Amino acid sequence: MGLLDALFRSNEILGIAEETLEFAIESSEAAHPREYMGFLRGTEADRLGLERDGLVITDVLVVPGTETNSVSATVKTNQIPNDVKALGSVHSHPNGVIQPSNADLDTFGRGSVHIIIGAPYRRTDWQAFDSQGKPTNLNVIDVELPETEEFFDFTQADIDEDLRG
Ligand SMILES: [Zn+2]
């Protein structure tokens, strides 16, 4: 399975890996009272042992240079690597209000699922939203995650190889 196949074969998001969700919640708590912000990346379900098409969110990419304070996180978009295809975003609301702000709604158009995690960062203190900012159901899936290097080892050479087939 090549990288480009993994990116384009199916855009359906089946859910988020339980481990990934827990990581994001723990990271949000660690960042408090500052806002935590990251992008969501996925892995093909069949690579995780699920016998179906689609993607499972398995990874949170925190962009270098993200500036956060208690009310907002600003991402320097030129810091986002070109080879990263984000399915959506995750960020925290240290004030505990688990609803998109107007500024959030402006950015939700990029990507299809956006998670907001709120203080006090319990396991249930989160909600997924669609690109319109409407609450959406996101399954939490108990899967074994592959070795992390598989996620981060993509290089231009890999992509070129895929393009050659
Ligand atoms: Zn927000």
Offer a few descriptive terms.
alpha/beta, two-stranded antiparallel ribbon, 165 residues, single chain, globular
Helix percentage: 10-25%
Cα end-to-end separation = 11 Å
CATH architecture: 3-Layer(aba) Sandwich
The arrangement of helices and strands along the chain is HEHEEEEEHEEEEHH
GO molecular function, one term: metal ion binding
Domain MPN: 14-135
InterPro entries: JAB_dom_prok, MPN
Protein name: Proteasome protein
Structure, described:
The protein is α/β, with parallel strands linked by helices. It has helices spanning 3-8, 18-31, 102-107, 149-152, 156-164, and strands at residues 13-17, 37-44, 55-61, 67-68, 73-74, 88-93, 113-118, 126-129, 135-136, 140-141. It has a single domain (3-164), classed as 3-Layer(aba) Sandwich (Cytidine Deaminase, domain 2), CATH 3.40.140.10. 24% of the residues lie in helices and 27% in strands. The strands form 2 sheets. It has an 8-stranded mixed sheet, with helices on one face. A two-stranded antiparallel sheet has the order 4-5. The longest helix has 14 residues, at 18-31. The protein is globular. The relative contact order is 0.22. The model has no long low-confidence stretch (mean pLDDT 81). Bound molecules: zinc ion (ZN). Residues 91, 93, 101, 104, 116 line the site of zinc ion (ZN). One of its GO terms (biological process) is proteolysis.
